[in-house]
Amino acid sequence: MINLKDFGIKQTKSRQHILDILDNSKEPMTAEDIFRELINEEINLSTVYRTLNAFYEQSIVYKEIDKDGKALFMILREKHKHVLICTKCGKKIFLKECPYKNIDNEILKETGFKIENHNIEIYGLCQDCQKKGVLEI
Ligand SMILES: [Zn+2]
Ligand SMILES: [Zn+2]
User: Which of 16, 17, 76, 114 has the most CB atoms in a 10 Å sphere around its CB?
Assistant: First the structure.
């Protein structure tokens, strides 16, 4: 179970509840999906949004935007995280899975070195900034 205190977030009943709902969900959820499961709690939708964004900033969850422009949230289960950092606007996007597992295996095969952990940050341009870049030309 994820302990919010480890992430510097004050633990409240509703925050923990939101986290548990996400933790038990196999599918990414919107704030509305989560809100619907919180029927017996005194919480409003904007609090759910705020909580989810706080989780996102602490990289407890990842966020993706679906084709309708809705934000979907899902728990990050990887022990370590990879972040894409936009060099233009500074936006951070967390990857939901480690893309380097195979590379770790390749290195093991080639060198016999067993990798325990790695720390990789990826720099580039986010989608928004790529679009802006095209407009500027
Ligand atoms: Zn950007
Ligand atoms: Zn990794």
Answer: 76
Domain boundaries, the chain: 1-77, 78-137
Is CATH 3.40.720.10 what the domain over 78-137 is classified as, yes or no? no
pTM > 0.85: no
Ligand 1 is an ion; its neighbours by CB within 5 Å are 86, 88-89, 91, 126, 129
What is the 137 CA–ligand 2 centroid distance (Å)?
36
Torsion angle defined by CA atoms of residues 19, 24, 26 and 32, in that order, rounded to the nearest 10 degrees: -50
Q: Which fold is adopted by the domain 1-77?
A: Arc Repressor Mutant, subunit A (1.10.10)
84 and 128 Cβ atoms separated by less than 8 Å = no
Distance 88 CA to ligand 1 centre (A): 5
